[in-house]
Amino acid sequence: MKGRLAVVIQKNSHKKQIEALSEISQAISSDRYLDDILKLIVTVTANVMDSKICSLWILDEQEKALKIRATQTMSEEYLKERTLKLGEGIVGFVVQQNKPLAILDV
After folding, report:
1. Which domains does the chain have, with CATH numbers?
2. For 44-60, what is each residue's pLDDT tens digit?
3. What share of the chain is helix, strand, coil (3-state, %, to 5)?
4. Residue 60: in which H helix or E strand, if any?
5. Residue 3 confidence (pLDDT)
6. Has residue 97 got a pLDDT over 90?
7. pLDDT of the residue at 87
8. Which residues of 68-101 are buried (b: 16+ CB within 10 A; e: fewer)?
């Protein structure tokens, strides 16, 4: 009986761990923390690339438009409802061509 009880307790413990990991995973992928994660990505990327400005744009495939989701060193006003069409500006051009582009003299 003790052996069976230990297996049941162990299964319940694993179930709780899996539920906890699932909850954490949902929190990380939810919009609640997404903005913080994206902000961290652009900040770290800018530091690694020794860049003063770094922005992250997301492609809205339904609208066929790029929307800015994160940036650093710019005001929060810059983030409000900024969109670009495919092919528009450098960002839109890069997405349309599906190739990276380095602009060294900005």
Report:
1. 2-97 (3.30.450.40)
2. 888 888 888 888 899 99
3. 55, 15, 25
4. strand 54-60
5. 47
6. yes
7. 94
8. bbbbbeeeeeeeeeeebeeeeeebbebbeeeeee
What is the Cα–Cα distance from 82 to 100, expressed in whole angstroms?
21
**To the nearest 10°, the Cα dihedral for 99, 35, 79, 106?**
-40
Separation CA 72–CA 46 (nearest Å): 8
Burial annotation 18-31 (CB, 10 A radius, 16+ → b, else e): eeeeeeeeeeeeee
pTM for the structure as a whole: 0.61
